[in-house]
Amino acid sequence: MTPTVYIENLKKTYGDVTAIEDVSFSIESGEIFGLLGPNGAGKTTTIRCLCTLSNPDSGRIEVSGVSAIERPRVVRRLLGYVAQEVALDKVLTGRELLRLQAALYHLPKGEIEGRIESVLGMLGLMEYGDRKTGTYSGGIRKRLDLAAGLLHQPDLLVLDEPTVGLDIESRVAVWDFLRQLRERGTTILLTSHYLEEVDALADRVAILDRGRVIDVGTPSGLKDKVGGDRITLRIREFAPLDEAHRVQAMLQELPFVREAIVNEAQGNSLNLVVDSQEDALTQVQQMLQGQGIPIFGIAQSRPSLDDVYLAATGRTLLDAEIAAAGRRDLKKEKKRQMAGN
Ligand SMILES: Nc1ncnc2c1ncn2[C@@H]1O[C@H](COP(=O)(O)OP(=O)(O)OP(=O)(O)O)[C@@H](O)[C@H]1O
């Protein structure tokens, strides 16, 4: 079957900045697909190219077999795009904004009002339809963005950081809605730098780093590949470094401990990667008690998508974001985006 999205060897540069170096992935019909990566990894650039808002330097992009580069108008009708920040006109009401959107998509006149009522109903926005959007909260505004993206009934919905800046309740409401949409057969591509968002929602995920896809798979498949469980141990709230190193050496002697690292940024706590076995935590505790070493806190967890990222790049997502923030010239980017490239 033709995939809903097919992207191959996509490359895009802005002057001397390479925004995406080599991006390839495909999305099957009915999937929720997540693009995960730190700020600056190239997520927005990838989806701007897919949504025909930006031209790649090279590569292939197809939506349901139609080339986004050769037939952008057709592709625009196949997909709905919900951008990260939307410049809603604050004096218009929700319904008025949706009418404007309907006109932009040249929807058949006789269908417009019916479709507006249907998307307002779907997103629980009936009581907000006649209120000015300037009075909306962040969560309600995001729901209206979603309504606008769905008005022309696209097969594919593309969302850039759909829950950034939302409170927990609104975030969960958006997640529930996206799941319902998948049930109805809509294919969804979303970008996120929230690990838990991608983990909770995505059937498959592509992990992006510095403009390249470093891995693609189901969240659990990717985590299994990294393997092992994690144990975080604090011997004291702030342990002296030499004591932490002593304990590290002892722990490394245990046969099921694959790796033990002293985390100086976290009060010299110890991060262990251990073989997945039920009594690993108990064995570590017994060994420490036997040696008279205190335990301030200890916890075991399965690997997360952050561990997948760490294993592939040697950095956590947070570290990568901090590093990327220092390299960006946001003013210049905004100017280029306004100029439409
Ligand atoms: N219009 C632009 N002009 C110049 N450089 C740009 C522009 N847009 C993006 N970049 C650069 O391309 C790289 C990828 O940016 P992109 O916005 O695609 O990343 P991202 O993963 O979506 O992050 P974010 O969520 O912060 O937007 C970054 O290094 C960024 O500085």
- Bound small molecules, which ones? adenosine-5'-triphosphate
- What is the average per-residue confidence, as pLDDT, rounded to a whole number? 89
Helix and strand element order = EEEHEEHEHHHEHEHEEHEHEEHEHHH
Low-confidence stretches: none
Strand order of the largest sheet: 6-7-8-3-9-10
Classify the secondary structure makeup into a structural class: alpha/beta
Radius of gyration: 24 Å
Q: Helix proportion of residues, in percent?
A: 25-40%
Straight-line N-to-C gap: 33 Å
- The count of helical stretches stands at 13
Which range does the strand content fall in? 15-25%
Query: What does the overall shape look like?
Result: elongated
Task: Give the oligomeric state of the chains in this entry, treating copies of one chain as homo and distinct chains as hetero.
Answer: single chain
- Give the biggest sheet: 6 strands, mixed
The total of beta strands comes to 14
